[in-house]
UniProtKB/TrEMBL annotation:
Keywords: Signal
Source species: Actinomadura vinacea
Signal sequence interval, chain numbering: 1-29
Protein name: Uncharacterized protein
Comp. bias regions, Polar residues: 61-70
Chain residue ranges for the region called Disordered: 57-78
């Protein structure tokens, strides 16, 4: 089982900062992802954080995620006939949910990641820039 951690870069307010630094509260959550057949790395955060998933067999990704936007890059690292995939998910307290998926195929190929919660110009601010998952498909 691998655990991908994303450290908080900036936080607003001492209470939120304390929760992030101590791992308490809902400001920063970490998730362990079981790895049956396909390997993956998952990161969770609320506020602003970075991720660096470089131990997934066949894929790498890194970037920054906030409650308004995710930016980064991804790379297919193996000639295995599979593609690298990154999924970004956001949630709001009002029940809104959005997931964006990016895929790149072919060893050495890279792709930029840029996503916002909401679709087709109907963007919104999430309460949780909740998950970034990197795996192969």
């Amino acid at each position: 089982m691998k655990i991908a951690r994303i450290p908080a870069l900036t936080v607003a307010g001492a209470a939120v900062g304390f929760a992030v630094l101590t791992g308490g509260g809902s400001a920063l959550a970490e998730t362990a992802v079981p790895e049956p057949a396909a390997q993956s790395s998952t990161s969770k955060a609320a506020v602003k954080a970075t991720w660096n998933h470089n131990k997934v067999k066949g894929a790498k990704s890194s970037g920054t995620i906030t409650t308004k936007k995710a930016t980064g890059s991804m790379k297919d690292t193996r000639k295995d006939g599979k593609c690298a995939r990154v999924r970004v998910e956001w949630w709001s307290k009002s029940g809104k949910y959005d997931k964006d998926t990016f895929k790149v195929c072919g060893k050495g190929k890279t792709k930029k990641i840029s996503a916002k919660p909401g679709d087709k110009g109907n963007y919104w601010t999430a309460n949780y820039a909740r998950a970034v998952t990197t795996d192969t498909v």
